[in-house]
Design a protein that fits this description.
The longest helix is centred in the middle third of the chain and has 8 residues. It is built from 4 helices and 7 strands; from the N terminus they run ββαββααβαββ. By secondary structure, it is α+β, with helices and mostly antiparallel strands. The mean pLDDT is 86.
Length: 139
């Protein structure tokens, strides 16, 4: 984790935050759809629910361009969690939001291309993160 400054594409303000290298930490990041909160989900949490990420390679029978075959996997994971405090929904494909203007901090960096999320490799946390285990829906 390191401190970093990003200029918001929506408002032009410099936004300070922490960079979390997801692959090194064995995590995924789910950004809120409405505010700058980030839900950090550790791989062992997914193991607990027996949710397995499909293979990324083109030889996988269900492979789709831009890794779109990952979207049902992402939906299963997202369904494990409560809504954000602001009422938004934590989602893998949600882009990060600016804490000053609420706009898209880096623009629509993922679009409908999961490959862009997979290769991003880090989470930008400007207002604090939430541990995924603490945000699970009641059983």
């Amino acid at each position: 984790m390191s401190t970093h400054v990003i200029q918001c594409e929506a408002c032009g303000e410099d936004i300070a935050g922490q960079i979390h290298h997801l692959g090194l930490a064995g995590m995924d990041a789910l950004y809120c759809s409405s505010c700058p909160r980030v839900l950090l989900v550790k791989a062992n949490l997914l193991d607990r629910f027996r949710i397995v990420r499909p293979p990324l390679g083109k030889d996988y029978p269900g492979f789709q361009p831009y890794l779109r075959h990952l979207l049902p996997f992402y939906e299963k994971v997202e369904d494990l969690f409560l809504p954000c405090e602001c009422g938004g929904r934590f989602g893998f494909m949600n882009p990060p939001r600016c804490p000053k203007c609420g706009g898209l901090l880096r623009g629509d960096v993922y679009g409908d291309r999961p490959i862009a999320k997979v290769t991003d490799g880090y989470a930008f946390v400007s207002v604090g993160s939430v541990d995924g285990a603490a945000w699970l829906k009641p059983a």
